[in-house]
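BUG-397 | component: ligand-complex export | severity: low

The export step for copper (II) ion jobs runs without errors, but we want the raw record kept on the ticket for reference. Input record follows.
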Amino acid sequence: MYHHTHLHTTSTSHTLESFDSPPSSVVVSDGLGPGLVVDLTSLNVKQGQTRSIVGMRKMQNYTPSEPPLEYSGEGGIPEPPYPSYPLLDSTLFLANAELNPSLTTSTNRVRMVNAGAGDTLIVRVDGDHLVVGRDGVLFPGHPRKDPGGKYVLEPGSRLDLFIFSPNATFYSDCGSGIDLNWLGAKTDVNCWSGGRFSPSHGSGYPLFTVSTSMTQASLISSLSLLKSSPLSKYTNPSYYHPSQSLLSLPPLNTSTFTYYTSPTKLSSPPSLVPSSLYGFNGVPYDGKAHPETTVCLGEVYEWEVVNPTSVGHPFHMHTNHFQIAGVTCGSPQGEECDTKQSYEVGDWRDTVMVPSPGSLRIRFRPLEFEGDSFAHCHIFGHEDRGMAVKVKIVDGC
Ligand SMILES: [Cu+2]
């Protein structure tokens, strides 16, 4: 069994279940205290079913067990008619399984989780705020704020922030002010519509509103506290091991993993919709041990994740967070690109978009956990069709 919360090829069905249950995510205890968790899940409105289920129907050699292949709208999914937001022929994100809910909290900390199966979300925060971390880990320096309040939330990724207004509204936004190119021209980004990006959707549609019961004085002191000191004075969660940057170390162990998409569409078994196979280094993951890579506890690794495809693929690694060492756009030897609305060199993450085309350099050092782990594209329709690699973590190399 991999160090994985569910069996390989069942990601899409597990995502579906999140519609029927309250958000299971928690803010892991750290020095910044508890907060409100908002679980964002995508819904294909036009067809009345989720994209994830559409993806499951395309899977090769998939034998359905309990999960339904068609979603009828029962359970937590709001019934149509849906509000007249733009993009209703594409993807609509629900917040805690509701459309545009008003959420209240006694704190001012908010964690957003993109729990969708494959769509990248661009969030715009309307309200005074500071972002303190991503993927459950605080930034290495100070809190940040994008001038337009826009942040890229890859599927599986998390965004931690504080609000300093009594009310803040969060939007799905694909408007101007963000460089969409690095996300991939054909990526399942929420502003993807009609065969190309559509930046004309302006302010987008509201995802949710947060109201805090904190007093104005408390909000002001919370703001000055966060602004006045680096986040390193706070304690990161226990799963975050590295206490120092790995970027100044010599890269002793280097590997390259190149995203792969089969050039020909496969249509076996014939009842399924023809689709490509996905993989790394030319090989779709076989569900067992191929492709596989071995890493040793305590060693520092540098991986280059290359994306020659025309789709942006979010790279996700289990067990150990990785540090961003570099990113290029246009080609593996391309130019620096502006990914700061998701990540910067030096950040610790576990899910980030690899530009299309482009490459991402990461460093990590496995500590503590010994056993089988996993790295994969976090678009589940790709992962479930083979875009994954088994990572064997061993002691005593
Ligand atoms: Cu992918």
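Assignee comment: Attached the raw record above. The chain has two domains: 11-233, 253-394.
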